[in-house]
Specification:
Elements (H helix, E strand, L loop, with lengths): L4 E6 L13 H19 L2 H4 L2 E12 L8 E11 L3 E10 L5 E13 L10 H5 L3
Length: about 130
């Protein structure tokens, strides 16, 4: 497994839907936030000035609901890559009982920050997550 990055989140009232579970859209926000935090924690400043990542696709499996006050461990790591896309995996687990809440795989596209066009994932970019 590639370098893993994680943090914890406590479920707040604003995270809930009308069934008092964490809303599906909120999980997507958690996934996006941790991906951005992971990149920011390892990328050199010069590279960050040149590259931006955008999501092409999310695949999310929902295993159990999360409720108000639950502490969630959000984990992410990178997976397979192609010329311009890199898979990112995410898992959210409830801390108190280790119950898996969601698992996901997202395809992120590397873009040149200036042109907004896809950029080849070269060895320098790959090395950021080694």
């Amino acid at each position: 497994m590639a370098h893993q990055f994680e943090h914890t989140i406590t479920v707040l009232p604003e995270h809930l839907d009308n069934q008092n579970h964490v809303n599906n859209v909120i999980y997507l926000q958690f996934m996006q936030d941790i991906a951005i935090e992971h990149w920011a924690s390892v990328v050199p400043a010069a590279m960050e000035a040149e590259i931006v990542w955008v999501v092409k696709r999310h695949e999310v499996d929902y295993h159990a609901p999360a409720l108000l006050g639950d502490e969630l461990l959000v984990k992410t790591y990178t997976g397979a890559l192609s010329t311009v896309a890199w898979d990112r995996h995410c898992e959210i687990v409830r801390v108190r009982d280790g119950k898996k809440i969601i698992s996901s795989k997202s395809a992120w596209i590397c873009l040149d920050r200036k042109t907004g066009r896809p950029r080849r994932i070269d060895d320098a970019i790959k090395a950021v997550f080694d």
